[in-house]
Amino acid sequence: MVGITQVSVRTMLVVLLALALQLWASTPLLAQTVIATVPVGRSPEAVAVNEKTNRIYVTNSFSSTVSVIDGETNVVTTVPVGVGPFAVAVNEKTNRIYVGNAGVGGISGSTVSVIDGETNVVTTVPVGVGPIGVAVNEKTNRIYVTNIGDNTVSVIDGETNAVTTVPVGAVPRAVAVNEKTNRIYVADGIFGNTVSVIDGKTNVVTTVPVGVGPFAVAINEKTNRIYVANLVDNTVSVIDGETNVVTTVPVGTDPRAVAVNEKTNRIYVTNSFNNTVSVIQDSSCLGTGETRLRGRVRTAADPTGIPDVIVTLTGPGGCQDATTTNATGHYIFRTLGSGIYTVIPEKDGCAFTPPSRMVTLEEADPQANFSGTCPDSE
């Protein structure tokens, strides 16, 4: 009897385990479940979230409204805005929401609606023609609006709503802000091949050549690298935010969107034509720690620095970065992790001593200095 009872119990346990596994496998996980469908206005185009207030903002281009969704209850409040609202961005610090009214049905728009997140009261700010992209710098309380119709960026002072107009490249579309460097990156449309880099302090613009048809832009603030999806030549241009040096990465056909995971240093690009996503693993050493490595390259005869030397850094795991020396021959790499790094200076016609250096970043104030001889310094 004891043997029969043990077998029966064992059998029952196996059956119960099998049933439990079957039920678990057939039950959808919460992360994969649509928990609600929320009706909004006509032709919802863009969405932004205020995590502090748990409010979601949806632009409805055909009904010229913004649907404000209560994240707790999914109750919707409809806020009238300008004609053809397209882009939307949130400043969580001020609880202000910025809506670019680009126009619709042949009616051009030229305003930004500023929604007070507390009251839903709207203030209208005149900007350029066809405001199609909006980005916020919460540190400076400046809002950047790309105007596709007149090739400008409107810079809105979030405190006063005063507007400064900055000319950029043709047909500007996407815009992204690096709050750490206070640089703003504007993709100059499908008919160009440049990115306009705005200095947030001075509004001075630097033009960086990229691939053909820059359409979307995203930033990794940890590594200070900017990723531009180029619609026409099917590439991603990787801009070094320190030097504006560009590296080109081939991707799929018709890349239209790009996003960055700063924790994994992976970049995701949607390829509209062939229904794929390209995943780029950036091998940058930057953003892996808090240590800096600096140095200087100068002539052997006197302490005059050598400018425009390309300094290449190779670190743990084969990560690699490059920068150039400034007018006094100085260079710096920031946000490096611990480990052993190799530093190599290069410039056409120049010879350097030593040709390379190995540096351990556990050392205090690590430096890699070089002396060099160039034709114009002899």
Describe this structure in words.
- This protein has one helix spanning 2-26; strands at 44-50, 55-60, 65-70, 76-80, 85-91, 96-104, 107-116, 122-126, 131-137, 142-147, 152-157, 163-167, 175-178, 183-187, 194-199, 205-209, 214-220, 225-230, 235-240, 246-250, 255-261, 266-271, 276-281, 291-299, 310-314, 320-324, 330-336, 340-346, 351-353, 357-360, 370-373.
- The model is unreliable at 1-7 and 23-29 (pLDDT under 50).
- The protein is 7% helix and 49% strand.
- The chain starts with a helix and ends in a 5-residue tail after the last strand.
- It is elongated, with a radius of gyration of 27 Å.
- The chain is mainly β.
- A hairpin with a 4-residue loop joins strand 22 (266-271) and strand 23 (276-281).
- It has two domains: 44-281, 7 Propeller (Methylamine Dehydrogenase, Chain H), CATH 2.130.10.10; 291-377, Immunoglobulin-like, CATH 2.60.40.
- The protein has a four-stranded antiparallel beta sheet with strand order 1-2-3-4, with no helix packed on it.
- The longest helix is centred in the N-terminal third of the chain and has 25 residues, at 2-26.
